[in-house]
Design brief:
Blueprint lengths: L6 H22 L8 H19 L4 H19 L7 H29 L3 H33 L7 H20 L6 H7 L5 H6 L5 H17 L4 H25 L3 H15 L2 H6 L1 H25 L4 H18 L2 H16 L3 H14 L2 H17 L6 H17 L6 H12 L8 H4 L2 H26 L13
Helix pairs in contact: 1-2, 2-3, 3-11, 3-14, 4-9, 4-10, 4-11, 4-15, 4-16, 5-13, 5-17, 5-18, 5-21, 11-14, 13-17, 13-21, 14-15, 14-21, 15-16, 15-21, 16-21, 17-18, 17-19, 17-21, 18-19
The structure holds aspartic acid (ASP).
The site of aspartic acid has 16 residues, from helix 19 and helix 21.
């Protein structure tokens, strides 16, 4: 192994040595409280792991995986104190979110206009939306069947309910009160922005409005007859913006292994493992359902493309580690662009068109989560659900998953909408808040797997999937 310690890592070592001397001398001089055992372990384990990750001559995806594993270990052994390192993860996420609006807009505009004519756009658009729509319904239906079959909410002891309510009632109430509950028609109308700038300046940005506006512009430019010079100028400009955003991400992604380390360590460190036991059945069923959904993509990609099974999984795993650690489809978009085009061989125009659309409307893992959670909460409250209620759950879970932005915790908020529609007390969301993080990480991974699979399949159908030879079926 050819290990090279660059100047950056030499300076890092010197700074670290100085910091350690200060940390150990300062308490002796009464300048600082002495570190406790956990903090000492942390101050050794985390910086040393960073150093090792930095000098190992691995490729970036492997380093990200190493970050994921070491971060999990760090979360276990250090616990909540790890929070001191979370700014690294937050800065990484902010840097990615910083480029998301211009990236989605330029990608979708360039992608839509490059499809050329309305018929091609219509065909690809229809296939994309149909695929996501159907699969999201499948996700919600699997969730519903599992929750009905295994009844995780029945028999949850009274004291466990009270403990969950006491721990999470206030936070859940606070979150639920911020949710606006538009009707179906209002949701539909809201896709059309009154003012695109107010739409994108909200937090999180209204991605559906952004997508709608970008597609309108992409379609409109193809409808203008002549004016080739001007049209080329506009397209070149947005192509340039797209390239610049990707360049920023290419630089930012270098810190991904460390950010992933910190994000996962934080998730593990903060996680209430005692709750996992209380909610074991609900968590197990939701994770099991997500795993089933994830697995279905493997034969689908095999039968509907020319990719071999292991090649496909190897191709997509870098983006899955990002999705898992960030809990955000939007934050995973730039890496997904790279993975789909460079590793799987999806054409640039299909990726430009489909992937920004996917992170916005494809949330089949989230639909599954909403279905299991709604049924679980109803069962805990002893509210019987009729067949019509169940169908309504599938529909509302599907629609609210489509409407949820690809950011952490989005469908937890949408769960309030689902509960309201079927008359389940919304305070019930407190029951599932304690295990929300692990479920969010997992459903985001499934959402992203769906996005990548659909891009590969539709690219293949359009004759625009050109994988490297080692990924091809034998
Ligand atoms: N975090 C999910 C995603 O970004 C959305 C959600 O289900 O909360 O895909």
């Amino acid at each position: 192994m050819n290990i090279q310690i660059t100047r950056f890592w030499k300076i890092y070592l010197i700074c670290y040595a100085v910091l350690m001397v200060i940390l150990f001398l300062a308490p002796a001089l009464d300048l600082l409280e002495p570190l406790n055992k956990n903090q000492i372990i942390m101050m050794i384990f985390v910086p040393v792991s960073f150093f090792v990750m930095g000098i190992l001559p691995f490729k970036l995806p492997t380093k990200i995986l190493v970050g994921l594993i070491l971060g999990t270990v760090a979360g276990f052994i250090v616990g909540p104190d790890i929070v001191i390192f979370t700014p690294i993860g937050s800065i990484f996420l902010r840097l990615i979110f910083m480029v998301i609006v211009p990236l989605v807009f330029s990608s979708l505009f360039v992608g839509t206009q490059s499809l050329g004519d309305i018929r091609t756009m219509g065909r690809i658009g229809f296939r994309t939306v149909a695929f996501y729509g159907l699969y999201t319904i499948v996700g919600a239906a699997i969730g519903l069947m599992l929750a009905n079959g295994f009844t995780p909410g029945e028999g949850l002891p009274e004291d466990a309910q009270q403990q969950l309510m006491a721990n999470y009632g206030d936070t859940a109430q606070d979150k639920a009160s911020k949710v606006v509950k538009p009707s179906f028609l209002e949701t539909l109308v809201n896709i059309v922005p009154k003012n695109i700038f107010t739409g994108i300046s909200s937090d999180p940005p209204n991605m559906l409005q952004l997508v709608f506006f970008a597609i309108c512009m992409g379609v409109a430019i193809t409808l203008i007859p002549g004016m080739e010079e001007k049209k080329k100028l506009v397209v070149n400009f947005f192509e340039g913006i797209f390239e610049i955003m990707l360049k920023i991400i290419n630089v930012v992604i270098e810190i991904a292994p460390y950010a992933v380390f910190v994000l996962i360590a934080d998730a593990v460190g903060q996680f209430g493992f005692d709750l996992l036991f209380l909610l074991a059945k609900y968590t197990g069923i939701t994770l099991g359902g997500l795993f089933i959904l994830w697995v279905t993509y493997i034969p689908l990609s095999y039968f509907c493309t020319n990719l071999n099974i292991f090649g496909f999984i190897r191709g997509v795993w870098p983006v899955m580690t990002i999705a898992f650690s960030t809990s955000s489809s939007a934050a995973s978009l730039p890496v997904m662009m790279e993975t789909c085009t460079k590793r799987l061989g999806v054409s640039q125009r299909i990726a430009n068109f489909m992937l920004p659309l996917s992170i916005t409307i494809n949330m089949n893992g989230s639909a599954l989560y909403q279905a299991t959670s709604a049924v679980f909460i109803a069962q805990v409250y002893g509210i019987p659900l009729t067949l019509v209620d169940q169908i309504v759950i599938v529909l509302i879970a599907t629609l609210s998953a489509i409407g949820a932005p690809g950011v952490p915790g989005a469908s937890f908020m949408m769960l309030v909408v689902v509960l309201t529609q079927i008359g389940i007390p919304i305070e019930g969301v407190a029951l599932v808040l304690g295990v929300e993080r692990i479920l969010d990480m997992s459903r985001t991974t499934v959402n992203i797997m769906g996005d990548s699979t659909a891009a590969a399949i539709i690219a293949h159908w359009e004759g625009e999937l050109d994988p490297p030879p080692e990924l091809l079926k034998k």
